Amino acid sequence: MSNVTILKNKQNKPYVPSNLTIVLIFSLLMLGLCVIGSLALGSRVVTMDGLIDGLFHQQVQSYEADVVRKRISRTVFSLLCGAALGVAGALMQAVTRNPIADPSILGVNMGASLFVVCGMAFWHITTAGQYIWLALAGAAVTAVFVFGIGSMGRGGATPIKLVLAGAATSAALSSLVTAIMIPRSTVMDQFRFWQVGSVGSGTWSSISLFLPFLIIGILIAVLSAPALNALALGDEAANGLGVRTGTLRFAAAMAGVLLCGAATALAGPIGFVGLLSTHVIRLLLGPDVRYIIPLSAIAGAIILTVSDITGRLIGSPGELEVGVVTAFIGAPILIILAMKSKVRSL
Amino acid sequence: MNNTSSLEMISTGRRQRRLRGMAVTSLLALLACVLSVSMLLLGNTIYSISDVIRVLFGEQVQGVSFAVNTIRLPRMLAGLLAGFAFGIGGCVFQTMLRNPLANPNVIGITSGSSAGAVFCIIILQADRMVISVASVVAGLATVIVIYLLSRGKVFSIGRLILIGIGLQAMLDAFISYFLLVGAQQDIPAALRWLTGSLNGTQMHELPPLIFTVLFFTPIVILLGKQLSILELGEQSAISLGVNTDKTRLGLILGSVCMIAIATATTGPIAFVAFLSGPIAKRLVGAGFLSLVPAGLVGVNLVLAADLLGQFAFDYRYPAGIITAIIGAPYLIFLLIHMNRKGDL
């Protein structure tokens, strides 16, 4: 009798993290600030009037207004890329049941890079629409490879094994990238432009190219979130709860690869965004994947945009690649996680 | 009766192992000699041995003198010394931490030295001496940071490696930043240097490396005797009378200095420090101190990679690319092997 009421009670009121509203409001506020910052700051800082003119008064023609208009597509692109990377990180952590999973740490970015370089060198590929498919293929192959190595032997895919497999694969792939690139100066220029381009290369056409992948990826992520919660209990428990673990893993991992592969193809390799955003959100909201995924998207967008602004300000009058900034902010998280982790779980 | 026979077995076993170790070491040394000589002979024009010997003894031979004295000899010496330093330094770390993955390449010590050197080259535009000192200081600082961060309640090699990988990512970000803010004309030099290459080494750059290798090799080898006891584990080493802290300090100081100075001279030639130790161990077998063989393997790797890079392809690859292409698959292979055995 009392059991039934408890059950009913639970069904009526699904679990909601207590500070969800505060976190949501705060992060949306941050997001707004980021957008304004990204439009206004850079090697030329725009005044408030210029900002308003650029955004709302299309008829006004001034230098500052033009600067702002140029920055709009870049800002949108960095928000979308950040969201994709944040969700990709959350998915990979949930699928591998492992707190240290991120496209860059698992070497997936480097796999995408290698395929793109091969495309440039051997098939003379030049457009972003072609990069994206190559990058996706590279990301998928590398993800399977790294996870395969990392989960060999006793204890399955422990963090240390996965990180080492990712680092080793990254090293191998990056040496191949260099070896392919060095003798071909045209490819080197093209590749460096692609790699350095970062979110600055975001145009409306690349955004429209990116959107379908983002939507499909996030849709799969949101749909698989409840089942990923069950997966956190372990494979047997998840099976018992009616989850097809194999299908789930495949779908969620592919969504992760789709998101980070597409982001890499258009923005170049950017690391540590997924790691950072997912951990911040988990720290704030707890382990429920249903909340982690959407909020990681917001957090990822914030982190990438802030990093982009930072890169523009530090590197002025040029700009520092956003991937460098995110590595600098995100790598300490890896160190802190390693310090806090219990010896046995490594 | 039984006792004496088992004693005999032990001593014959020891003799055999020592013989094998000696044989392997001399073979490696011989190979290193052959490679060094071919470094002097081969090039755009191939000189005869007699010409090269005459030049080395100070005679002036038309054409040969310039090529050998200013291009090939410094190149050969840099490869020789840097390879030795990388090999021995990497092997010390791997033996001390009892894990082949715990080497300067993987845990970011080489990146630390590189960051220090790049800072000096690009930002300060400093001279050789400052670059060498800075890369040693940065390498040591990296070691200290890794040590402090990975201390914890219980020491875990897995944690140390993870922290090292994180630190490496940060240091690489620093390097990219320096490359960005640097003056355009310094960047090609820094980039070429970062891939690890013997190209364009000049005689006046070598003295710091020569002194470091000559000074620290004997120290590290002497301490290395205790290293094989350290390998048995902390407790056994202490009860066998080894002052573990002092030995460790000396070994770390010596090997980091060697690696850092070698990095400052030739750039971080990828994976040499990682590969040499395991290859040497496999060659000499257990029970023979593998520091000198590891150094020799390092020499052979660097010289062979440089020769391959110069002559095997249409394009002249720097040595670092060749060692990376050999080394990275081996790293993956080693990981698979360790995972299967459950060592991680």
Automatic annotation (TrEMBL), chain A:
Belongs to the binding-protein-dependent transport system permease family. FecCD subfamily. PANTHER family: FE(3+) DICITRATE TRANSPORT SYSTEM PERMEASE PROTEIN FECC-RELATED, FERRIC ENTEROBACTIN TRANSPORT SYSTEM PERMEASE PROTEIN. The chain crosses the membrane at residues 20-41, 72-92, 104-125, 131-150, 162-182, 202-228, 248-271, 291-310, 322-339. The keyword Transmembrane helix applies. InterPro entries: ABC_BtuC-like, ABC_transptr_permease_BtuC. One of its GO terms (cellular component) is plasma membrane. The lineage of its organism: Bacteria, Bacillati, Bacillota, Bacilli, Bacillales. It is found in: Cell membrane. This is Iron complex transport system permease protein. It comes from the Bacteria. CDD domains: TM_ABC_iron-siderophores_like. Keywords: Cell membrane, Membrane, Transmembrane, Transmembrane helix, Transport. Pfam families: FecCD. It comes from Alteribacillus iranensis. GO terms for biological process: siderophore-iron import into cell. One of its GO terms (molecular function) is transmembrane transporter activity. It is a multi-pass membrane protein.
TrEMBL record, chain B:
GO terms for cellular component: plasma membrane. The keyword Signal does not apply. Keywords: Cell membrane, Membrane, Transmembrane, Transmembrane helix, Transport. One of its GO terms (molecular function) is transmembrane transporter activity. It is a multi-pass membrane protein. One of its GO terms (biological process) is siderophore-iron import into cell. The chain crosses the membrane at residues 21-42, 76-93, 105-124, 130-149, 161-183, 209-230, 251-277, 283-305, 317-338. It is found in: Cell membrane. Pfam families: FecCD. Belongs to the binding-protein-dependent transport system permease family. FecCD subfamily. This is Iron complex transport system permease protein. It comes from Alteribacillus iranensis. The lineage of its organism: Bacteria, Bacillati, Bacillota, Bacilli, Bacillales.
